[in-house]
Amino acid sequence: MTRPAPASHRHGALRNLLGIADLGPDIAAGIAEVMRLTDSFVEVSERAIPKVPALRGRTVVSLFFEDSTRTRLSFETAAKRLSADTMNFSVSTSSVKKGESLRDTIETIEAMGVDAIVVRHASAGVPRQIAHWASSAVINAGDGWHEHPTQALLDCYTIRQHLGELSGRHITIVGDIKHSRVARSNIAAFTALGADVTVVAPPTLLPPSLEGWPVKVAHDLDAVLPGTDVCYLLRMQRERMTEALIPSLREYTARYGLTEERADRLAEHALIMHPGPMNRGVEIAADVAERPNAVIVDQVRNGVAVRMAVLFLLLGSGTEWGGEPDA
Amino acid sequence: MSAEDMQRATWRMAHEIIERNHGLDDVVLVGLQTGGVPLAGRLAGALHQIEGINVPVGCVDVAFYRDDIGLRPVLPEAVTDIPVELTGRSVVLVDDVLFTGRTIRAALDALTDHGRARQVQLAVMIDRGHRELPIRPDFVGKNLPTRRDEAVDVHEDGVDLGEMVK
User: Fold this and answer.
1) Is residue A254 part of a domain?
2) Does A159 lie in the same domain as A72?
3) Is residue A84 located within the same domain as residue A157?
4) Residue ranges making up the domain that contains A260
5) CATH code of the domain containing A241
6) What is the ipTM of this complex?
7) Which residues of A touch B112 (CB under 8 A)?
8) What's the gap in Å between the CA of B87 and the closest CA on chain A?
9) Within an 8 Å CB–CB cutoff, is residue A4 touching chain B?
10) Number of structural domains chain A divides into
11) Which of A317, A319, A320 to substitute to test the interface with B, most B CBs within 10 Å?
């Protein structure tokens, strides 16, 4: 009957999810706990009425300083399926436009009695700063080039669903590594689970130094594709391309895009993944995204269940660990 | 309670389930995670030996329906698996120990999300008393008077009574 406490609780409850490291000290065990809980929420999502009363009376506010459709909708759906109330704060219609400071905004939101704040911001570190001020749980839904932990968790879950455990798998991440928070969170999560990660990008789209990153670097995509179990394509972020880092999108596609010919070089079991939104015809050919081994829609579907797991871990699983529920 | 006692009790409860439902038409067993799951399996085995019918067996985890979420650590033990639509069925909920009744309250809510059962009955190996809600079992292996602070442990080799680990 007695079960060991999940990793995330061994040193007190999980308070915030700002980055993959928050799932530590044993990150692999922390991710495994989220995956286990996600299995339960996948079952809930498949029901005729995909809703449980777990977080009744809790309020989740999404505070998005940067555009997003899927992440915001995914968190909102997750909160609603847990019966939590949701509030939406969109910067374009708020007092931020009138010059309200971030701290005042947070204080105002907290005064309304919220339990969790889901934050997206163009600057790295903003969620951590908010977590410092706020007493509610803070979830990072993407901060600048820094981290996007729930994306990494849903990617781990999707890979595990199709290929089993990640340990020993070869994962290739292609594209704009430099500006990608998805790449940073995914590298942390994949390598913690024992996967072998290779990043492929033009030198101008790699960070100035990869020292300390547990990854291999390659510049020739064709050479690494045959041995790859997961080909993870990053979006070419046109909004971040103010500097002339690549000669043209056409040249990028020619060398780093997953074209029909390149997709044919992948092993039959190999997965094609993309965090979305896709630039069809740039990093991925239009028809490649429709292949049976492209699991991009599964990523979105699993995203809701993973975010339910994260919200439940933060808000529902209790403040102390150790007690057994009443029989 | 020894392993043999438990087997006899399981056998008797299986007979009572058949008697109460005038056979096994539309009967579904649903074990509660985690203690009720092996018992539901053993009851299904007994029902098969008596009537030659395989009744559907599911399991339910009530973590997301508990009334103490946020007050104490609550996490599911396993994924809920209800193999058939419950609407119109006679559901026999199965658990190892009936105590406060709060888990059963949560289980009734959980079942509702899988359809409108014609009726729900409750089978438990041990009824240890101390109910906090108006819930009673239909089929009982053994009534075992306990103190509130005692722990009841039902396992394969029998039932033990011990001090609750604080």
Assistant:
1) yes
2) no
3) no
4) 149-301
5) 3.40.50.1370
6) 0.88
7) none
8) 13
9) no
10) 2
11) A317
Q: Do B98 and A323 touch (CB under 8 A)?
A: no
Instruction: Please give chain A's pLDDT, 327 residues, in tens.
Output: 344 444 344 345 688 999 999 998 899 999 999 999 999 999 999 998 899 999 999 999 999 998 888 999 999 999 999 999 999 887 776 777 777 889 999 999 999 999 999 999 999 999 999 999 999 999 999 999 999 999 999 999 999 999 999 999 999 999 999 999 999 999 999 999 999 999 999 999 999 988 889 999 999 999 999 999 999 999 987 765 667 788 888 889 999 999 999 999 999 999 999 999 999 999 999 999 999 999 999 999 999 999 999 999 999 876 433 334 444
| Interface contact A37-B75, CB threshold 8 A | yes
- Centre a 10 Å sphere on the Cβ of residue B59 and count the other Cβ atoms it contains: 22
A53 contacts B64? CB cut-off 8 A: yes
Please say whether the beta carbons of A110 and A136 come within 8 A: yes
Shared-domain flag, residues A121 and A238 = no
For B135, the token pair is: 């819930």
Same domain, A77 and A178: no
Provide the edge-to-edge strand list for the sheet that holds A196-200. A216-218, A196-200, A170-174, A230-233, A271-273
Is A2 part of any domain? no
**Structural domain range at position B144:** 3-163
Rounded Cα distance between A209 and A177, Å, is 12
Residues of A forming the active site: 70-71, 98, 120, 148
Residue keyed to tokens 């991710």? A31
Q: Any residues with CB less than 8 A from the CB of A242 and at least 6 apart, and which?
A: none
Q: Does A10 touch chain B (CB under 8 A)?
A: no
A43 shares its domain with A104: yes
Q: Domain count for chain B, please give it.
A: 1
| A19 and A81, same domain (yes or no) | yes
Task: Please enumerate, as own/partner, the contacts of A90-96 that have beta carbons within 8 Å and a separation of 24 or more.
Answer: A90/A64, A91/A64, A91/A65, A96/A65
Within a domain: A320: no
A69 occurs within a structural domain: yes
Biggest CA-to-CA distance, chain A: 66
The count of C-alpha atoms lying within 13 angstroms of the C-alpha of B22, restricted to the half-sphere facing its C-beta, is 0
Task: Say yes or no: A92 and A155 in one domain.
Answer: no
Angle between helices A70-81 and A296-315 (to 10 degrees): 50
> CATH code at B130?
3.40.50.2020
- Token output for A103: 């701290």
Whether residue A17 is found in the same domain as residue A40: yes
pTM of the model: 0.91
